[in-house]
Design brief:
Oligomer: single chain
Mean pLDDT: 94
CATH class of the largest domain: Alpha Beta
Structural class: alpha+beta
CATH superfamily of the largest domain: Pseudouridine synthase I, catalytic domain, C-terminal subdomain
Largest sheet: 10 strands, mixed
Distance between the termini: 20 Å
CATH topology of the largest domain: Alpha-Beta Plaits
Helix content: 10-25%
Number of strands: 10
Low-confidence stretches: none
Number of helices: 6
């Protein structure tokens, strides 16, 4: 029997607080991953193939995304044409409705397209809040969306100077957390952007407390495990005077994960994946393979 198979690139966003991360969690684990819910939504479409959603960019427990991406295949009977992109977007969002997960865009792509390997850059933003003496002073709308630094003033110019040290191509071994993948991952990465700048907040504008928001932005083709949180923690330590700019260079030069100071990595709650970028050619209207 002839069948219709189509591959799609989906862009999606989520609030990560309730999930074990973006990747699928095993059945025995109480907290589910975002991927579990995406695959369940696809199954509701009753495809003929086994459902598998291939995520482009891993995020950990508590990390959010305004823009993550994945590819998936949907196989239908010959008398049912492939889903149109808009129809698939609306259908998946209907089945995801109870969850803080949304499909923002869908593209039909070539059968050999791979969401992870075709991505040309990823951008993360880490949000900080200063001017807070107790966690109860944070507006409720910012809950789990930033790192509130209690009783802290930051030397922003020192953080920006330290950021320039991390920019460019380096061995970032010191700034990765050890994992089972460590021996197989090249620690040399190119940071296209390391930026510290004032942040914006709806609650800051309309809720009259002396809270200042800051955004640390990082852009690269790919990142090492927990690299952004460890770079953020080190930059915040510079802003607090706990590390010098020179010590950031020394950490980078050490090329040793164990050289990174204990308990310095930033928590997950302020980290947001804001963009996964592809070549324009990959997002052109689909033509038959």
């Amino acid at each position: 029997m002839q069948q219709n198979r189509a591959r799609y690139l989906i862009f999606f966003q989520y609030l990560g607080s309730k999930y074990s991360g973006v990747m699928k969690s095993p059945a025995h684990q109480p907290a589910e991953g975002v991927q579990n819910h995406l695959e369940n939504a696809v199954r509701r479409l009753k495809p003929l193939n086994e459902v598998s959603v291939s995520i482009s960019s891993r995020t950990d427990t508590g990390v959010h995304a305004l823009c993550n991406s994945a590819h998936l295949d949907i196989l239908r009977k010959a008398d049912k044409p492939p889903f149109a992109e808009k129809v698939l977007t609306e259908a998946l969002n209907f089945f995801l409705k109870p969850e803080p997960i949304r499909i923002t865009r869908v593209y039909r792509v070539a059968s050999d397209f791979h969401a992870r390997y075709r991505a040309i850059s990823r951008t993360y933003v880490y949000r900080l809040a200063t001017g807070v003496s107790h966690h109860s002073e944070m507006p409720i709308m910012e809950k789990d969306l930033c790192w509130a630094l209690r009783d802290t003033e930051l030397d922003i110019s020192a953080m920006q100077e330290a950021g320039t040290i991390l920019s460019g191509t380096h061995d970032f071994s010191t700034f990765r957390a050890l994992s089972s993948d460590t021996p197989f991952k090249d620690p040399v990465k190119t940071m296209e952007l390391v930026q510290v700048q004032p942040g914006l907040s709806f609650s800051q504008r309309h809720f009259h407390r002396d809270i200042q928001f800051w955004e640390l932005s990082f852009k690269s083709r790919s990142f090492l495990y927990r690299q952004v949180r460890r770079m953020t923690g080190a930059l915040v330590a510079v802003g607090q005077g706990k590390l010098s700019v020179r010590q950031i260079q020394e950490l980078l030069d050490a090329r040793d994960s164990l050289a990174y100071p204990q308990n310095m990595a930033a928590p997950s709650c302020g980290l947001i994946l804001t963009n996964v970028e592809y070549k324009d050619l990959d997002l052109m209207p689909y033509t038959q393979d």
